[in-house]
Amino acid sequence: VFSLQDYVGAFGQDLWTSGWSLLSESGKLPDNEYSDNILCGEITTDTTISGVWFMTCQVFVKNGATLTIQAGTTVKAYAIDAAGTAPALIITAGSKIMAAGAKNNAITFTSVRPASTLPARGTWGG
């Protein structure tokens, strides 16, 4: 018997396989956290981000847009997206990235995988 859910996909906001599955034990699952802050696709207008963001596919800053990343921001990226490409942040010609962190308020790019499995090569595109 199936019950209707208000989310798309198998997990919703709770990664129920975390902590007991082979995927979890081998460090292949992301941390069990959720955010509506998703970076994916094209950024074509000036955009500012802060807080925790998840990069789920390749992100292209285009058309002269500026992506401003505020101090203290964390961007967590997946190793591969549904198309089989590695999520990455690409700043195209004529566009800009403005990112000024501080010693005690760093900007961090990392993997969605649990900290206990890092550092590890190939956990995100860059």
What's the count of strands? 8
Number of helices: 1
Give the terminus-to-terminus CA distance: 42 Å
Low-confidence stretches: none
Rg of Cα set: 16 Å
Shape: globular
Describe the protein's architecture and organization.
The structure is a single chain. The protein has 126 residues and is mostly beta strands. Helices cover 3% and strands 30% of the residues. It has one helix at residues 22-25, and strands at residues 38-43, 47-49, 52-61, 66-69, 74-77, 89-91, 96-99, 108-111. It starts with 21 loop residues before the first helix and ends in a 15-residue tail after the last strand. The model has no long low-confidence stretch (mean pLDDT 81).
Record keyword descriptors for this entry:
single chain, 126 residues, mainly beta, 5-stranded parallel sheet, 3-stranded parallel sheet, 1 helix, 3% helix, globular
